[in-house]
Write a structure and sequence with these properties.
mainly alpha, 61% helix, 712 residues
Length: 712
């Protein structure tokens, strides 16, 4: 009896010690995280809000309101930039408070489980960290599957959201391992995505499942990064590829089952994935599609609402064709995209294993997707899509648009949809060479990206016109290289610097490329914004920063504005082609697209600062001599680069654009002279005159160059 008592007492003491340690670890981690969040809130409220002139009101229950207080004599008029900054601050504070609430509830739950609310039994849940408790709760919810209530699903989303980006990858890895392996993870996501996109699902449920798609994607990206301390084994990659061509079911007796790649594709659309994980999957999917474009569409549901599928976001398809999904994944994963398009392809067997001594049968994936015989699919469940020409065209553009996103990430080093205004990323040799290949490809075959809605003209619409917006962004990113090509500037040019490795573009291909790309309103606005910012920077350096030169200053100013003005001429003619020749856009669309291109002004100016050895982060820095004034000049230029139908018929469709190019060039000189007190007013007038003259001539050169090309 005494021995039994001692044994039991020893166990109780051990259990008490374990319970105490669990409580200690959870409280320690919880305190550290809450203290860090408190610091963020204080920074936002006491510093950031004060800088903006904003007040923060606590509405209770983790909700706040940011507002501009009324000041006597103030008109209360706010710029859009101020309103955006206020909203960003409010959203940021709400996210921090939500994160704090999630930690608080997790700590409370963990403490309750550690103690067990039993005065006579100390053996309960054991935690080595707060992370253990958060993973436990996330898996507890996930195991309910589509039986989760809306509130429980929102809780799961919060747990994944706030823990998916941990630098060591511990939570992400333990969560996916806890789901039971690759197949179980796919089954869980498949069940949830169908539950949320079912025709009977509520809007609340759909929104929650859309959020789940994102946070599970971000979490998977974190868990599959081999550089993290905690990460999933490489076997997960091989298993995902094996499952890619296998049917995945999650209900007993299930008849219609999706393929693994259809399900996995929904997750891959979100997150910046490591190349060692994503690139092999993207290669395998592409090779499967090339062999049989419809292998994954044979089992898609018929007669269902268009949102039914494994891409609850609905962006660029329903998710039936995994090719669109992996291209979107590459668009968010720059390193993987660069390797996908620039390194020799690896051949794969149907089961996802590497084909020993196998040849893929093509030289590059750029060649694959731009082959005239490559077949893009209609990734939608809408039963009426084939009977509706507009729906068909829209659906057929999903894949090419995702292809453009992947190329954009590969050439810029950034996710395609990043509005990040941090430091620009230097162009590597591989990226610059890829840009040259892209320009050569579409310069030689502009018909691939042509769009024509005018039945009176025989020029057929090309299969890849949906990617022109991304091609415009690539052009903006490589503006120095494109300006060099206008008048065949040498590769050693100091006046027109590239940002990193030079692309060495072919001038003839550049013109054909720009002539087609510039017909897209978004591409036109990106190119015009970057062109004017780059030209302004070149003029600034010619007048204020360059060393001595044998050429006259007014001559150098002429040279500085000429390439940009020639590009503006091509853009003016392309815009007129889109409106009056091909009937694919209206002036209003070109004008509206300009409002979202401020990022290109900041990026280009940031590149310019870097080239003269004065690199500072763009974020938080006011490049005072240029940014706001240049954006205003760009807006005016784009809005007035218009023409009437009569002018187009008379062959003077770019006269307004020429006037705006002249004004823009003069503005660039004026900006450069703002802080220059060494140049007298007579010289300043000479420089402005030189800029106007060169801009007028070069704009006409560019427009005529493009117009003559159209006629051939």
């Amino acid at each position: 009896m005494t021995r039994e008592f001692i044994t039991k007492t020893t166990k109780e003491i051990s259990d008490l010690h374990r319970e105490a340690n669990s409580i200690y670890q959870v409280l320690l981690d919880g305190h550290a995280e809450l203290a860090a969040l408190q610091k963020q809130v204080k920074q936002a409220v006491e510093v950031d809000a004060a800088k903006l002139g904003v007040r923060v009101e606590d509405l209770g229950d983790g909700n706040v309101r940011c507002f501009f207080p009324h000041i006597r004599g103030d008109t209360d008029e706010r710029t859009q930039e101020q309103l955006n900054a206020k909203q960003e601050l409010e959203n940021r504070i709400k996210r921090v408070l939500s994160h704090a609430a999630e930690i608080d509830s997790t700590v409370a739950r963990a403490l309750a489980k550690s103690h067990g609310n039993d005065a006579h039994n100390a053996g309960h849940s054991k935690y080595e960290s707060l992370n253990d408790a958060e993973v436990e709760r996330a898996l507890e919810l996930a195991r309910k599957g589509d039986e989760m209530s809306d509130a429980e699903l929102r809780e799961l989303n919060r747990l994944l959201q706030f823990n998916s980006s941990e630098k060591d990858g511990e939570f992400a890895t333990e969560f996916y391992q806890g789901l039971g392996g690759p197949e179980k993870a796919l089954e869980f996501y498949a069940a949830m995505s169908i539950d949320g996109t079912d025709s009977e699902a509520t809007k609340t449920r759909l929104n929650a499942v859309q959020d789940l798609q994102k946070v599970m994607g971000y979490t998977l990206a974190n868990a599959t990064d081999p550089d993290h301390k905690h990460h999933l084994p490489a076997s997960w990659n091989a298993e995902f590829r094996r499952l890619g061509t296998q049917e995945i079911g999650w209900q007993p007796g299930q008849m219609s089952k999706p393929y693994g790649y259809q399900v996995l594709g929904g997750l891959l659309r979100y997150g910046n994935y490591d190349a060692r994980f994503l690139t092999p999957i993207a290669e395998h999917v592409t090779q499967l599609h090339k062999e049989d474009p419809y292998r994954f569409l044979s089992n898609k549901p018929a007669g269902s609402p268009d949102i039914y599928g494994f891409n609850p976001s609905g962006k660029l398809g329903t998710g039936n064709d995994p090719l669109n999904s992996v291209l979107e994944a590459l668009g968010h994963s720059p390193e993987a995209a660069e390797k996908f398009f620039t390194q020799p392809p690896t051949a794969y067997n149907e089961d996802g294993t590497v084909k020993k001594d196998g040849e893929p049968g093509f030289g590059s994936y750029l060649d694959v997707f731009t082959d005239e015989d490559f077949e893009w699919t209609i990734d939608t469940n809408d039963t009426n899509v084939l009977a509706d020409e507009d729906k068909t065209k829209k659906a057929l553009a999903f894949g090419p648009e995702a292809f453009g996103h992947a190329l954009e990430a590969a050439t810029t080093g950034r996710p395609y949809d990043s509005d990040d205004t941090g430091d620009a990323i230097r162009h590597t040799e591989a990226r610059a060479n890829l840009v040259r290949q892209i320009v050569d490809k579409f310069g030689e075959h502009p018909e691939l990206i042509r769009r024509n809605e005018n039945g009176d003209i025989d020029d057929a619409t090309g299969p890849l016109y949906g990617m022109r917006g991304s091609l415009g962004d690539i052009t903006a990113e490589y503006m120095g290289d494109f300006q060099r090509a206008m008048y065949e500037e040498g590769s050693s040019s100091d006046m027109f610097p590239t940002f990193g490795a030079a692309a060495n573009l072919d001038p003839g291909h550049v013109q054909q490329f720009l002539g087609e790309v510039g017909q897209d309103p978004d591409a036109y606005a990106a190119i015009t914004s970057a062109q004017q910012a780059y030209t302004a920077d070149v003029v600034h350096r010619v007048i204020n920063a360059d060393g001595a030169s044998g050429a006259s200053l007014d001559g150098r100013v002429r040279d500085a504005v000429a390439p940009g003005a020639a590009m503006a001429g091509i853009m003016s003619d392309s815009r007129a082609d889109a409106i009056y020749k091909y009937h694919t856009a209206m002036d209003a669309e070109f004008n509206e697209s300009a409002a979202e291109k401020q990022k290109w002004v900041d990026r280009i100016l940031g590149m310019g600062v870097d080239t003269v050895g004065q690199r500072v982060p763009i974020a938080g820095t006011v490049i005072g001599w240029a940014s706001e004034d240049i954006q205003e000049s760009i807006m005016t230029s784009i809005q007035q680069d218009t023409t009437t139908e009569a002018e187009a018929e008379a062959g003077s469709e770019y006269s307004s654009g020429r006037s705006q190019a002249i004004r823009s060039a003069e503005d660039a000189v004026s900006h450069a002279l703002v802080n220059n007190h060494e140049i007298d007013w007579k010289t300043a007038d000479d420089l402005k005159r030189a800029a106007r003259t060169a801009a007028g001539i070069s704009h006409s050169d560019g427009a005529q160059w493009n117009s003559e090309s159209d006629a051939n």
